[in-house]
TrEMBL record:
Keywords: NADP, Oxidoreductase. SUPFAM superfamilies: ALDH-like. Belongs to the aldehyde dehydrogenase family. This is Succinate-semialdehyde dehydrogenase / glutarate-semialdehyde dehydrogenase. InterPro entries: Ald_DH/histidinol_DH, Ald_DH_C, Ald_DH_N, Aldehyde_DH_dom, ALDH_GabD1-like, GABD/Sad-like. The lineage of its organism: Bacteria, Pseudomonadati, Bacteroidota, Flavobacteriia, Flavobacteriales. It comes from Paenimyroides ummariense. Residues 9-429 form the Aldehyde dehydrogenase domain. GO terms for molecular function: aldehyde dehydrogenase [NAD(P)+] activity; succinate-semialdehyde dehydrogenase (NAD+) activity.
Length: 432
């Protein structure tokens, strides 16, 4: 889109902000209810857009749209409590903290969960009183337009969300626009650094949700059957294209062979086939170049001594569910983020060693630990460099809980009550 039409959209959104800012929270919540209804009424059309854009099996695309509605419900129920003014006792007559919006926010969004990522960013901050322009990933144009449609509800006569069909090279100019007050990017480290640099230059708030290389740790007392089932889902969901997917599987040496056999067996529970077939659960990756990148990481690792024990083959954008053993920490399948259906499996002897391996990553999004005796972890959990720890469960993003990482996984938090404050002016008011 030409720069001037982008500027015109941004100016329109500033007018929208001045109106939306004056809505009471109750009125904003009413609009959110309309958005949720529209989402559910059209869920099949929206899911079709997701599936067509990035090959996610339609069953999972419908689930993604439904999860967005679930997120709306969470904020419809809880926003009033989260955004209530907070009175504070001081030496003055009255003091309180109140939450004001910032203005027009920019979202730079990825293709892997084209609806969920946008909802996660937009909904809490919409209730705070902000409005949005979004640069979506270039390979999800149908989803980008569908999202603009979702937010265009009959009960308001001005836009609160506009899609900017711009190239990534134009993002810096949008951040520089004085109307834009802050930016949130979900995507790669490379994009995160670029957006943070521009945001820093213009002194604008920035939230970054970047990559991950989560460890999935199985201790020797774990329920192996359950852990192997979770492992398949944690790694293979969305054809492995999830920031919070478990990518490195650290298995206690006493149960290593048994777990690996079970993991391999349970890959057969994935249902492969046509992406529009509602029974299918595993499909092609979003683009052929992404599958080629994964293939390169695998080939370089095999050249260093890794062994493929399941899958490993690529046909255009389709990459077989793949398990790799004999992995060492210097191999790309361990040291880099693998954004596809490939699990690197490595044995360990002690919990200390497992934690050291888990932390041996530039990322810090989350780790899962499987054990029959979670109490034994009490003295260890503080040693993990992660934004989230899930015991006997795969990492998921849930509206009730804050979501975000440390290290190169980014900074800031989405979801829960924390999300409402990321793009708020937390204002102190003192009345003497
Ligand atoms: P990406 O290439 O970084 O793209 C994400 C978005 O950033 C797209 O809209 C992209 O636009 C834009 N972009 C790319 N380079 C940019 C730049 N230099 N300046 C400004 N914008 C830029 O990432 P992706 O391939 O879509 O997504 C995969 C990555 O996202 C993985 O690392 C994954 O772990 C991470 N991710 C993280 C989370 C989380 O919550 N932590 C969630 C999902 C994904 P174009 O499409 O036009 O290039």
């Amino acid at each position: 889109m030409a720069l001037d039409s982008t500027s015109v959209i941004i100016e329109t959104m500033q007018s929208s902000f001045l109106k939306w800012r004056d809505f009471s929270l109750d009125d904003r919540i009413s609009v959110l209810k309309n958005i949720k209804e529209k989402l559910l009424q059209n869920k099949r059309d929206y899911a079709y857009a997701i599936t067509t854009d990035m090959n996610k099996p339609i069953k999972l695309a419908i689930a993604e749209v439904e999860k967005c509605a679930y997120l709306c419900d969470y904020y419809i129920e809880n926003a009033a409590q989260f955004l209530e003014d907070q009175e504070v006792k001081t030496g003055w007559g009255k003091s309180y903290i109140t939450f004001r919006p910032l203005g027009v926010l920019l979202g730079v969004m990825p293709w892997n969960f084209p609806f969920w990522q946008v909802f996660r960013f937009v909904i809490p901050s919409l209730l705070t009183g902000n409005v949005f322009v979004v640069k979506h990933a270039s390979n999800v144009p149908l989803s980008a337009k569908a999202l603009e449609d979702v937010f265009n509800v009959d009960t308001i006569d001005f836009p609160i969300y506009k899609d900017l069909s711009i190239k990534s090279s134009e993002v810096a100019n949008v951040i520089a626009n004085p109307i834009i007050k802050a930016v949130s990017l979900t995507g790669s480290e490379h994009a995160g650094r670029s957006v943070a640099e521009t945001a820093g230059k213009h002194l604008k708030k920035c939230v970054l949700e970047l990559g991950g290389s989560n460890a999935f740790i199985v201790l020797n007392d774990a329920d192996l059957n359950c852990a192997a089932e979770k492992a398949v889902n944690a790694r293979m969901q969305n054809a492995g294209q999830s920031c919070i997917a478990s990518k490195r599987f650290l298995i206690h040496e006493a149960v290593y062979n048994q777990f690996v056999d079970l993991f391999k067996q349970k890959l057969s529970t994935l249902i492969l086939g046509d992406k529009y077939d509602e029974t299918v659960t595993f499909g092609s990756m979003a683009r052929e170049d992404l599958a080629v990148e994964l293939e390169n990481q695998l080939e370089k690792s095999v050249a260093k001594g890794a062994t493929i024990i399941a899958g490993g083959k690529r046909n255009r954008a389709f990459f077989e569910p793949t398990l790799v053993t004999n992995v060492t920490v210097d191999m790309p399948v361990f040291a880099e983020e693998t954004f596809g259906p490939l699990a690197a499996i490595i044995p360990f002897k002690t919990i200390d060693e497992a934690i050291e391996l888990s932390n041996k990553s530039n990322f810090g999004l989350g780790a899962s630990i499987f054990t029959d005796n979670p109490q034994q972890l009490d003295n260890y959990l503080h040693l993990f460099d992660e934004g989230a720890l899930f015991i006997n469960e795969m990492i998921v993003s849930d509206p009730h809980l804050p979501f975000g990482g440390i290290k190169n996984s980014g900074y800031g938090r989405e979801l829960s009550h924390f999300a409402l404050y990321e793009f708020a002016n937390i204002q102190t008011v003192v009345i003497k």
